[in-house]
Amino acid sequence: MKTKALIFDLDGVIVDTAKFHFVAWQRLAKKIGVHFTEKENEQLKGVSRVKSLEKILKWGNKTISDELFHQLMDEKNKDYLNLVYAMTTDDILPGVRAFLDAAKADGHKIALGSASKNAKTILNAVQLLDMFDVIIDGNQVTKGKPDPEGFLKAAEQSGYSPEESFVFEDSIAGIQAANTGGMTSIGIGDKSTLAEADYCFKGFLELDYAAFQTLETKLNINTL
Ligand code: B16
Ligand code: MG
Questions:
Q1: Other residues' Cβ atoms within 10 Å of the Cβ of residue 1
Q2: For labelling, which of 44, 58, 76, 115 has a CA lying 20 to 30 Å from the CA of 19?
């Protein structure tokens, strides 16, 4: 087996936008009187905007009208986007650019599998939009992670089967989505948090392209 599609999550894998989501959600939570810290923010990683606000309201025991719900989501997104527009290539996580360059030069299809509806805006801000052959984001999926819908679409549009695809993810829900979808899951982050991942690395300095090739070779030998 030769693995060919590389599917990347965005927030926490390519860039650290979690810190911007935190600032924007915290501002909103304060406004509606809900206690919200970095600990709660962890639970929003990889979760859609709608589901995130539902969780925040639940934590604060709040019930609001549909109209206010949508108004709050819009406000949060405007706040968040103001932070995103200020992003530059310096916001790409360490080692990512070199990994993507090497993988693309080596013939891999580069795909995005993100829950974010702002994925293209973010990739554009950090000048990585042209790098991606396929972009599946929050606008193309009806079911969020841990459902594998987004990753399955990303593999299909890349022209490869799930078994020929790797998923790079920093969230537990995303790792579960990759596993259910039949891809090789690579956790990016803490090993104990991402224990369900097939393999786990701290980031793309530890998993540079040479290390990835070694892993790929090992997998190819094991599946011969
Ligand atoms: P948006 P990922 C996810 O991105 C974030 O981790 C999550 O915190 C956020 O709520 C979600 O995108 C939706 O983002 O409000 O921009 O549509 O990790 O799947 O790349
Ligand atoms: Mg993520």
A1: 12
A2: 58
Plot region of 33 (φ>0 → left; ψ -120 to 50 → alpha; else → beta): left
Mutate to test the pocket of ligand 1, among 7, 8, 21 (most ligand atoms within 8 A of CB): 21
| Catalytically annotated residues | 9, 11
Tokens of 61: 């025991």
Q: Is the pTM of this model over 0.85?
A: yes
The Å distance, Cα 118 to ligand 1 centre, comes to 8
Closest atom of ligand 1 relative to the 171 alpha carbon: 18
Kindly give the confidence (pLDDT) of every residue in the chain, 224 residues in length, as a single tens digit, with 9 standing for 90 and above: 466 899 999 999 999 999 999 999 999 999 999 999 988 988 898 899 999 999 999 999 999 999 999 999 999 999 999 999 999 999 999 999 999 999 999 999 999 999 999 999 999 999 999 999 999 999 999 999 999 999 999 999 999 999 999 999 999 999 999 999 999 999 999 999 999 999 999 999 999 999 999 999 998 866 65
Pick the CATH number of 5-16+92-222 from 3.30.310.50, 3.40.50.720, 3.40.50.1000, 3.90.1150.10: 3.40.50.1000
Pocket test for ligand 1, best of 114, 117, 175, 188 (most atoms within 8 A of CB): 114
How far is ligand 1, taken at its centre, from the CA of residue 9, in Å? 9
Burial (CB count <10 Å: 0-12, 13-18, 19+), residue 155: buried
For the chain, domain boundaries: 5-16+92-222, 18-84
